[in-house]
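Structure in, sequence out. Go:
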C-alpha cells in the first residue's frame, strides 16, 4: 500500500532564532485508513505540527525538511506550497477538525451554507448540487439535514456543532484529516459517539487520520500508530498497542502513570487524615430552576423550560461532592443558581446561615465571598489587560477592604498556596501555560477565603500530567483550608478520584447518589451504567 503522507526530518524553529527548535527531527509515514495519534503535554509541539502540515504556521516560525503528500501519483511537498497551491490542497486533500467548534464556525452563517461554501470552492458543481452534497454530508454524521441545514451555530449543542465540523472536514472526501483535540470539551457519551463516527467515516472513505490528543485512553482506542512528543522531541514512536502495553521511554511511562486511580486515592487517604466534619455547608431541598420562553402575540405560549428539577443534597465541611452527567443535563445551570446568576424557582437552598432562594442583592455580596467558582477556561475568565497583581488587588480592595500592606501579604500567600513564584504577580495571563493559568484561577477563587468551591470542568482542557498536578493541589487545599467542593466533570475517572460521594444527573434530576469508591462496582441505575460504559 502506498503512503498518503510521508514526513521526513521536520524541524520547526523560531524565525529570528533558527537554533531554537520547537519541533526537532520529526518523521512518520501515514497510510490510507490508518490513524496516527500524537500525544504529549501542553507545549510539546503537537498543534504546531498540525498547523505546519495545514500551511497555517505563523510567520514567526519556519519549517524545514519534507512533508510529501501523495495524490494521484504525484508528490506535493507541503512545506513548499504557495498560496495558490494551498487553495487546491487545503480543504480538498487535507482537512482540519478543530477543538472548539463554536470558535471555528461562522456565527453569521447557517450550518448548510458553511458546508455548501466548502463544496463550491473545491468541487465543480452548481449551487443546487452543492446543497444536495451538503445535506448528504450532514446526514453522514447522523444529523437531520432538513432540520439543521438552516440553523445557526448558537442553536446547536456542543456535540451537534462538533458533528457539523466533521461534516465540513469530510464533505470533499479528503485523503487526510487532522483532528486536533476534537473531543476535549465533550461529555463521555458524546465523545464516544464522535469517535465512533470518525472511525465509520474512515472505513467508508479510506481517510487517514492524524489524531492529536492529551487523552491517552482515547489515543489507545482510536489509533494504529502512536507518537509521544516532549518539548518538540519524539520520545517514543511505533505500534500503539505495543507502546501502551510495554512503554520504553521514561516520559511515556510517566504519562501513563499520571492518570488518577483508586489505588492513588487509597494511598492518599492512608497518608493524610480526613478533614470531613458533620457541619453542613450547603443544603438543597427540592430546588428547581425554570426559564420562561419568549412569546409574543403572534406565537403560542410555550411551557417554561426546566433544566433543574426537584434536586436535594447536602455538602459537609471538607467534603467533595462530584456531579456528573451528559451535556445539557443541568449541571452548569445548578452551579449558576448556587452563585445567584440565575434564580431558583422553587424549593429551599441554604448556604451556612444564608437563604439562597430569598437572598437580596446585598446578601449575595456576602454569599459570593463564601462560594467561589473555578472556570474551565482560565484564559477566557482572566482580564487580558490586567496583571495578576491587579486582578487580585481589585478583589481584596472591593470585597475585603484590606490596606496596601495587607493586600501585598495576602497576594504573596495566595501564590504560595497554589505553588507559584511571587514574580507571577507582575505578569499578564497570556504569559503562562494552561496549568499555570488554572493555578492563578484557583488563587483568585481563594482570595476571598471561601468555604465552598464550585469546579466546573476545571481540568477538562489540561493534559494528563498538568491535570494530575491540579487535582493534587485541590486535595492539598481541602486538607489545609478545610474546603468543600462541588466538583462538576464529565470524566468519571477524575470525579471518582476527587470525590467522597457522586451525584449522577440526568435531564435535570438526580438519577443516582453513590459513594465514589463504589461507582464502577455498585452502580444500580441504567443511566449510570450507560455513562460508565461510554468511558474508554
Amino acid at each position: 500500500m502506498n503512503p498518503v503522507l510521508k514526513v521526513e526530518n521536520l524541524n520547526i524553529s523560531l524565525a529570528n532564532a533558527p537554533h531554537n527548535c520547537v519541533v526537532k527531527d520529526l518523521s512518520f509515514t501515514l497510510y490510507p485508513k490508518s490513524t496516527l495519534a500524537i500525544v504529549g503535554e501542553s507545549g510539546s509541539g503537537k498543534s504546531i505540527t498540525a498547523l505546519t502540515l495545514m500551511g497555517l504556521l505563523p510567520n514567526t516560525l519556519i519549517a524545514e525538511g519534507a512533508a510529501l503528500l501523495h495524490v494521484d501519483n504525484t508528490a506535493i511537498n507541503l512545506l513548499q506550497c504557495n498560496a495558490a497551491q494551498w487553495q487546491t490542497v487545503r480543504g480538498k486533500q487535507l482537512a482540519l477538525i478543530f477543538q472548539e467548534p463554536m470558535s471555528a464556525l461562522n456565527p453569521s452563517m447557517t450550518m448548510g451554507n458553511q458546508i455548501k461554501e466548502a463544496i463550491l470552492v473545491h468541487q465543480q458543481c452548481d449551487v443546487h448540487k452543492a446543497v444536495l452534497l451538503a445535506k448528504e454530508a450532514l446526514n453522514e454524521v447522523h444529523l437531520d439535514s432538513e432540520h439543521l441545514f438552516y440553523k445557526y451555530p448558537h442553536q446547536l449543542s456542543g456535540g451537534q456543532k462538533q458533528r457539523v465540523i466533521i461534516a465540513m472536514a469530510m464533505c470533499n472526501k479528503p485523503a487526510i484529516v487532522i483532528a486536533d483535540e476534537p473531543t476535549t470539551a465533550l461529555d463521555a457519551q458524546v465523545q464516544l459517539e464522535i469517535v465512533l463516527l470518525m472511525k465509520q467515516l474512515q472505513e467508508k472513505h479510506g481517510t487517514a487520520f492524524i489524531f492529536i490528543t492529551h487523552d491517552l485512553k482515547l489515543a489507545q482506542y482510536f489509533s494504529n500508530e502512536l507518537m509521544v512528543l516532549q518539548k518538540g522531541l519524539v520520545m517514543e514512536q511505533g505500534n500503539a498497542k505495543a507502546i501502551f502495553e510495554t512503554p520504553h521511554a521514561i516520559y511515556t511511562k510517566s504519562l501513563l502513570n499520571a492518570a488518577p486511580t483508586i489505588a492513588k486515592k487509597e494511598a492518599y487517604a492512608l497518608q493524610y487524615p480526613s478533614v470531613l466534619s458533620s457541619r453542613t455547608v450547603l443544603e438543597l431541598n427540592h430546588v428547581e430552576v425554570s426559564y420562561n420562553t419568549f412569546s409574543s402575540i403572534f406565537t403560542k405560549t410555550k411551557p417554561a423550560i426546566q433544566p433543574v428539577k426537584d434536586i436535594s443534597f447536602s455538602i459537609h465541611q471538607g467534603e467533595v461532592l462530584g456531579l456528573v452527567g451528559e451535556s445539557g443535563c443541568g449541571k452548569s445551570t445548578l452551579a449558576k443558581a448556587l452563585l445567584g446568576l440565575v434564580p431558583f424557582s422553587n424549593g429551599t437552598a441554604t448556604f451556612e446561615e444564608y437563604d439562597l432562594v430569598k437572598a437580596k442583592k446585598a446578601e449575595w455580596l456576602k454569599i459570593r465571598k463564601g462560594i467561589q467558582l473555578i472556570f474551565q477556561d482560565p484564559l477566557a475568565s482572566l482580564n487580558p489587560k490586567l496583571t495578576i497583581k491587579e486582578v487580585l488587588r481589585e478583589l481584596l480592595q472591593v470585597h475585603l477592604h484590606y490596606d496596601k500592606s495587607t493586600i501585598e501579604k495576602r497576594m504573596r500567600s495566595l501564590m504560595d498556596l497554589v505553588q507559584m513564584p511571587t514574580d507571577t504577580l507582575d505578569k499578564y495571563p497570556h504569559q503562562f501555560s494552561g496549568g499555570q493559568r488554572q493555578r492563578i484561577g484557583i488563587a483568585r477563587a481563594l482570595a476571598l477565603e471561601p468555604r465552598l468551591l464550585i469546579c466546573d470542568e476545571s481540568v477538562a482542557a489540561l493534559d494528563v500530567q498538568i491535570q494530575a498536578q491540579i487535582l493534587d493541589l485541590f486535595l492539598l487545599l481541602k486538607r489545609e483550608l478545610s474546603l468543600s467542593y462541588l466538583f462538576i466533570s464529565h470524566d468519571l475517572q477524575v470525579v471518582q478520584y476527587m470525590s467522597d460521594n457522586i451525584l449522577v444527573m440526568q435531564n435535570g434530576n438526580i438519577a443516582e447518589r453513590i459513594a465514589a469508591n463504589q461507582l464502577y462496582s455498585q452502580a444500580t441505575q441504567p443511566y449510570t451504567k450507560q455513562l460508565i460504559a461510554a468511558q474508554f
